[in-house]
């Protein structure tokens, strides 16, 4: 929901700055098809882990490393777009904390308990079945960059707890959309 809100905000403010929504169609991204591979890798590992067919934590470092490498290639090829540079900074923050913690994003168990953990994430993380997250503990490296920020309910739907990197990515998405809409010729 957070990313959807910043997209809408970027469009609205871009239009208020005398831009046109149709300018978004002029954005030209390179190597975007690589994101499909990233999504497929992450989805496959998550599904296999949730069904108990693999120990996702065991392969997380390699699978997340591959996904992050492809994602960074996409960001690199599109670095001419200012918002993408900011998205890259947030992404690097998330990559750093995840790769230092075995390819998994550490999450605050206190915040999971506070929000009610409706999806059962806490139990999945405790037994190592999550495949993308682990609980913050004394061995966690760079806990400051972990998922430790509680989102307000209207923004937190689907992402109730975020990292600093996630917030930086949101700023980058906003800038990308706002600058595209506001632009007279758009960025290409």
UniProtKB/TrEMBL annotation:
Signal among keywords: no
Coiled coil stretches, renumbered: none
Keywords (A to Z) from UniProt: Membrane, Transmembrane, Transmembrane helix
Regions crossing the membrane: 33-54, 61-78, 84-104, 154-181
One Pfam assignment: DUF5317
Record flagged with keyword Transmembrane helix: yes
Superkingdom field: Bacteria
Annotated protein name in UniProt: DUF5317 domain-containing protein
Gene source species: Pseudobacteroides cellulosolvens ATCC 35603 = DSM 2933
Origin organism lineage: Bacteria, Bacillati, Bacillota, Clostridia, Eubacteriales
